[in-house]
Amino acid sequence: MSILSILFGCKKVNTDPISNKVPSKQEIEKKEVPFYWEGANIYFLLTDRFNIGQPNKQLSIDRPDSTAVLRGFEGGDIAGITNKINEGYFTKLGINAIWFTPIVEQIHGATDEGTGNTYAYHGYWAKDWTAIDPQFGTKKDLNDLVKAAHANGIRILLDVVLNHTGPVTEIDPVWPEDWVRTEPTCDFSNYENTTACTLVNNLPDILTESDEPVELPDALLAKWKQEGRLSQELDELNLFFERTGYPRAPRFYIIKWLTDYIHEFGVDGFRVDTVKHVNENAWDELQKEAEYAFETWKKKHADRVLDDNPFYMVGEVYNYGISTGRGFDFGDKIVDYYDHGFTSLINFELKNDANKEYESIFKKYSSLLHSKLKGKSVVNYLTSHDDGSPFDKERRRPFYAANVLLLTPGASQIYYGDETSRPLIIEGTEGDATLRSFMNWSDLDSLPKIKQIHQHWQILGQFRANHPAVGAGKHKRLAKSPYVFSRTFIDGEFKDKVAIGLGLPKGKKSLWVKGFFGDGTKLFDFYSKTEVVVKNGKVILDNDNNIALLELAE
User: Can you tell me the distance from the alpha carbon of 238 to that of 402, in angstroms, rounded to the nearest whole number?
Assistant: First the structure.
């Protein structure tokens, strides 16, 4: 491994896989691996539960009530994420995109909907889309985060909510009836009973299907006036509606407020919440305005642009699985969300597929991504913040989980603590709170087993980041026993190819790569940091690792 690769992490020698010609040092210094969302390595975290960057921050919102276990604010913030970026935590894990839960100002009161008294620590209960909740930080903190991320080659995904406001509390009034509906509750039996309804009780649903102009809520106007920014907000809205010609309907106000974060900070993408509960035309409109904002920001900040990728939107269509392909079936209507603003959807299927053998998983995903979903992608996960049936909930198979998640074709989503076996079963919790404990930094600092698990995730993550072929390439099995497979990715002049062995025996082992790497080719096993040469269609490794990550030697 060259010192340049070590220094630059995600940078990789662009060796020509046809001639095996290794470029000169000068060529190496000029080249780096292009980024593809189709093979991204995304880290997802709860802003409030990851890291405390400003323990003594001043809070302008009083939230004094006691809460049920893990249902109040724990102190994590935007600055805490930035600190970990600057420490190199994400780079060492091979992360090239970070998605964190919404940071807009949340409702001030607490609710109890059957799971215990709860504050909006998770970020999905918006009160004011134009402000950042002081519990999470400030706009300066967000600007610092995006700058730090971009300086380290990491993209930022904002989690955005268009479907609903926060619940109604004693101090958080319901929005006007021309903005929201408060009944009926969705029963998910058809399209209308999934979109024109409240997701759960006491979660007012934005009338996103309406084109009727509405006035801004009095409570929001009063809030802006008190904060000294009423004129500015109204002037910006006037400019937005004059430029776009949209009616002043509820969804267009929120689209404006959401895309302001692109205009101001240059975030690279949105993870969009509750997609199937909003009429699909709204996502076309959000994508259009997001792309406009992204291109405008890039023109103003040419020195901070990472690449020419367009704005990225990944949607949470709850229970969508990769086998579904392009159309999500409501029973009485089929919607292709890939035709409505999304380049990727979250795949809820891998947590079940993970119980199958490697080849079955990899072959299936490669086949679907290069046929039905060609030109689009999915984001795979094994654990998340609201999936009560994750893979390996008791964290008994952390090495296998890493292999499946990070080597399955598609983009990967590491949920914070996957890499450190953060417990997903917390005594005394109700509902999804058990999935949302604070990041277990102390375990990583003190427990040898956790350090070993973490190192495995780091090596796989770095290899994946160095090689778009792993997530975006085509899969092919090279040998059944020991199991060896290849991934190949070609985009114009950029070519990338790797071979990977899994379930390997201890000691001396022979890996079959004939027909993929020619005899005499020098390869580097990224896992054991060993250089080998292909001979008689094979490479020989002698170690106790059950995995090999083979790349062209630099």
Answer: 49
- 144 a catalytic residue: no
E strand or H helix at 377: strand 377-380
Topology of the domain comprising 483-552? Immunoglobulin-like (2.60.40)
Among residues 316, 349, 387, 551, which one is catalytic?
316
Q: Where are the alpha helices (DSSP H) in 370-488?
A: 398-407, 441-446, 448-466, 468-472
Specify the amino acid at residue 42.
I
269-272 vs 483-491, strand pairing mode: unpaired
Mean pLDDT over each residue of the chain, to the nearest integer: 94
Q: Is 242 a catalytic residue?
A: no
Domain 35-468, CATH class in plain words: alpha beta
- Position 58 scores a pLDDT of 85
pLDDT at 433 over 90: yes
β pairing state of 269-272 and 155-160: parallel
Q: Where in the chain is the domain with CATH 2.60.40.1180?
A: 483-552
Q: How many CB atoms lie within 10 A of CB 261?
A: 24
- The helix (H) or strand (E) run that includes residue 491 is strand 483-491
Catalytic member of 144, 273, 349, 353:
273
Q: Is 33's pLDDT higher than 50? A: yes
